[in-house]
Recover the amino acids of this structure.
């Protein structure tokens, strides 16, 4: 019998996250862009204009194989489904960002 007392919350969280990932509800992208004031704001403004919810942001400028004067931003975005993920990728590319999918 399954009751509230014997449910492992960590396992439940992992199961929910896994299901959402399989359903295309998460999109993780890597964006490489210039390390200049305003570039991160430009990216986040574009994402906000697209109506996307940002779940996580990582901003790296050192320790990676990046060209001088560039940074890497890894974003986890909330999407509706697999089709929406593809649309978001295309829209970011059309907005001028160097985007790649993170598996």
């Amino acid at each position: 019998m399954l009751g509230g007392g014997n449910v492992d919350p960590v396992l439940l969280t992992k199961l929910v996250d896994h299901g959402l990932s399989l359903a295309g509800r998460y999109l993780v992208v890597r964006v490489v862009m210039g390390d200049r004031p305003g570039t991160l704001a430009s990216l986040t403004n574009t994402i906000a204009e697209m109506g996307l919810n940002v779940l996580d942001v990582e901003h790296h400028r050192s320790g990676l194989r990046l060209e001088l004067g560039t940074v890497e931003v890894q974003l986890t975005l909330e999407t509706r489904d697999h089709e929406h993920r593809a649309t978001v990728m295309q829209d970011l590319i059309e907005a001028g960002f160097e985007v790649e999918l993170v598996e």
Notes: The longest strand covers residues 26-34. The mean pLDDT is 87.
